[in-house]
Amino acid sequence: MAARGFTVIELMATLAVAALLLSLAAPSFQRLIATHRSAAAMNQMAGAVNLARSLAVTSGAVVTLCPGRGSECLGRDQWHRGALIFVDHNRNGTLDADERVDRALPPLEPGERIYWRSFRNRTYLQFHARGYTRWQNGNFLYCSPGGDAGLARMAIINPPGRLRSARDRDGDGVVEDAAGRPVVCP
User: Fold this and answer.
1) 134 by DSSP, 3-state: which?
2) pTM confidence score
3) Tens digits of per-residue pLDDT, 33-73?
């Protein structure tokens, strides 16, 4: 009987070609994963904003979305640590002992950041019972661990509480803010 199979030389050549193709494809896959991660983080934040607005309308009360975890609202630019949504009976933007968390968002991956900038410079976002913000038009900016502007995403909120995603209108690979300027991660 004749032996069938691959020689060691044929096997090594096949493995070398496979390794070469994998090394060429790996950076593209890493970029694809980073792009999907940034989209997922902004979709999570957009979902939280829409949920807070909906809760305000259905409960007939002021609802706050703040950076936080557990039972504590955190300070400015702590959105990467998680977020809390709750009915804010006294409208102070802080989770008090008599208020309960309706929804908590998990923290982001290490190195990822979300920044909130708004009119009136609050660390939180609030909605009235009619679904309007409490005069807090502004934006959420997502920044990737490396600060790559091409991976940055922005969600823009107007005073009536409507949310829209920033777009790359000039085709340079970087989304623009509400004024048409390319976003910059701090």
Assistant:
1) coil
2) 0.84
3) 899 999 999 999 999 999 999 999 999 999 999 999 999 99
Count CB neighbours of 74 within 10 A. 19
Nearest in space to 151 (alpha carbons), one of 110, 94, 180, 113: 113
Fold of 32-165: minor pseudopilin epsh fold (3.55.40)
Q: In 3D, which of 47, 46, 50 has the Cα closest to residue 58?
A: 50
Q: What are phi and psi of 94, to 5 degrees?
A: -125, 140
Other C-beta atoms closer than 10 Å to the C-beta of 67 total 23
Give the C-alpha separation, 109 to 91, whole Å. Answer: 31
pLDDT in tens, 117-154: 998 889 999 999 999 998 889 999 999 998 899 999 99
Query: What's the token pair of residue 56?
Result: 């305000």
The neighbouring-strand residues paired with 154 are: 141
